[in-house]
Structures are given as structure tokens and as C-alpha cells.
Amino acid sequence: MNRTLQPALTLFAVGMIGLGVLALVVGDFAMVWQPVAPWVPGRTALAYGSGVLMLVCGVGLLFEATAEAAVRVLFAYLIAWALLKVPAVVVAPQIEGVWLGIGELVMLMAGGWVLFARLEGAPADSWLGFAVEERGVRLAQIVFGIAVVPVGLSHLFYTPQTAQLVPAWLPARTFWAYLTGVGQMASGLGLIFRVWPRAAAWAEACQVSLYTLLIWVPATMAKPTARLPWTAVWISWAIAAAAWVVAESVKGRDQGSGNREQKDRGKKTGNREQAVGNGLHAVKR
Predict the structure, then answer these.
(1) For residue range 78-90, what is the model confidence (pLDDT) as tens digits?
(2) Which of 12, 17, 203, 227 has its CA 20 to 30 A from that of 30?
(3) d(CA 177, CA 183)
(4) CA–CA distance, 139 with 114 (Å, rounded to integer)
(5) CA atoms within 13 A on the CB side of 44
(6) Are the CB atoms for 33 and 136 separated by under 8 Å?
(7) What are the residue ranges spanned by the domains of the chain?
């Protein structure tokens, strides 16, 4: 595990622990973010099981001895969680809100994918080869970028609702709704097409973190017994943590350019040394 990823991993683990504890306290799934139908058999038992899984895996991520096993289970769980939103996309693809819903969960899943790619011990030539090591990390970054675009676009589709979430002490709330939406879309596109990808990833991570701190933390303080703010704050925390995991996995273009320049200099030096060697051999002959 890269040491630079450790703070983001810790944030991600805390988010999973928070969601797990919340599920065990309320005995239910995470409201609209986990749309498990009421008719599902054993729904309450499944909700408690989901809470235990997130809690145990979140704790497991904090310890080196259990991190690999925890991320395997958690990644599979996050994939299943994101798939809960697929029926809504199939039934009503014309509604931007359903793309917002699946986008948020795919962002969360992509963060888990980066951790899986970094921690999973499967060899690159196995059937999981596409999902691990650098190739897996890059695919996760692209998926994350794709998921961010509809989340940002929702600010433009639902501007009045978004503006209502902007803290009242900020002037021009509609302006902030537009700005944050465009900013998120720009971050997503930057990750997809590798246009200042590190800056794009960090901007998205900072933005989602600010949503948590400026919108949902105050909401929990205003209504400490209400379920929605607590669910939203932990969902937002987890998505922000996933964004930090992705951000810490991105290698900046400058770094890549530097590596290429170093390789080019090495090749040129090698060519010069080879030429000098050939010249010496010619003199000897």
C-alpha cells in the first residue's frame, strides 16, 4: 500500500463504519441511497446484515493484516449496492435524477475499486487482472469520472433544489449551484480524458468534502434526532472519502512527463556512451 493512500483509506474506513453503525441503530437501509424494496423477503435481517458487513469491513480496512480480505468483501458489496439503482435507470432513463442516484453510488464503488486494485494480491495475468494494479486503478479513475458528470449535471437540472442546499450565509446561492455543477462536470471530464487529472481529482474531492462539512454536518446539528441528515452526512462522507482515494491514486501529468524526460535522457546518455565505445573500438582497430 502506498503511504500517500493511507489517509484516504482511513477516511473511507470511517465512512463505512459510520454507515454500518447507522444501519444497526435504525435497523434499515440508507433510505433513497439503498433502495431495497419493501417486498424483499427478510428485508430487516438483510439491513442488519448490511450494517454488520460495513462495520466489520470498515474496521478491517484499518489493519494491515485484515485490509486485503476486507476490501475484497467490500468491493463486491459496493458493486451490488450500485446495482440497486440500475432498475430505475432502465425504467426512467429520461429522468436526470436517476442518473444522479447511480452516479453517487458508482463514485463510491470506484473508490472501493482503487483500494481493491492496490490491496488485492491477485496476479495481473489472472481473470481479475483487468481490475488490479495500475490498469485497474486507471479503469477505476475513468469510471469515477464518468459517474461524476451526471452528479454535476443534476445541479443544472435541479437548480432551485440545489440552491436551497447552499448555506444561507453565502450570497448568490443560485450562482453557487451552477458553479459547483459545472465544476463537478469539469472534474469528471478531466479524469476521463486525462486533462490535468490530478487537479481534477483533487478539486472533486475538496468539493464533495465541503458538501459534507457545510451542508450535512450543520443539518445533523439542527435536527440531531432526524434520520435523513445522519444518513446524508455518512453517505456524503463515504463519497468524499472515495473521491480522496481516487485523487491520491492519480499521477499528475507533470510527474508522467518528468518520468518520460528522465527515460529520454537515459536513452540519449546510453546512445552517446555506445557511440563513444564504438569510436574507441575503431581507433584500436
Answers:
(1) 999 999 999 999 9
(2) 203
(3) 10
(4) 9
(5) 3
(6) no
(7) 3-251, 259-285
pLDDT of residue 260: 43
- The rounded distance, in Å, linking the Cα atoms of 8 and 3 is 10
Please, are residues 48 and 23 in contact by the beta-carbon 8 Å criterion?
yes
| Rounded Cα gap, residues 215 and 22, in angstroms | 19
Condensed to tens digits (0 to 9), the pLDDT of residues 168-186 reads 999 999 999 999 999 999 9
Residues for the chain: how many in total?
A: 285
Residue 142's contacts (CB-CB under 8 Å, 6 or more residues apart) are 191, 192
Which residue shows C-alpha cell 439503498? 34
In this predicted structure, what is the pLDDT of residue 122? 67
**Residue-wise DSSP of the chain:** --GGGHHHHHHHHHHHHHHHHHHHHHTS--GGGS---TTSTTHHHHHHHHHHHHHHHHHHHTSHHHHHHHHHHHHHHHHHHHHTTHHHHHH-TT-HHHHHHHHHHHHHHHHHHHHHHHH----TTSTTGGGSHHHHHHHHHHHHHHHHHHHHHHHHHTHHHHHHHS-TTSS-HHHHHHHHHHHHHHHHHHHHHTSSHHHHHHHHHHHHHHHIIIIIHHHHHHSTT-HHHHHHHHHHHHHHHHHHHHHHHPPPHHHHHHHHHHHHHHHHHHHHHHHHHHHHHHHH-
- Mean pLDDT, the chain, as a whole number? 90
Percentage of the chain surpassing pLDDT 70? 85
Contacts (Cβ under 8 Å, ≥6 apart) of 139 = 113, 130, 131
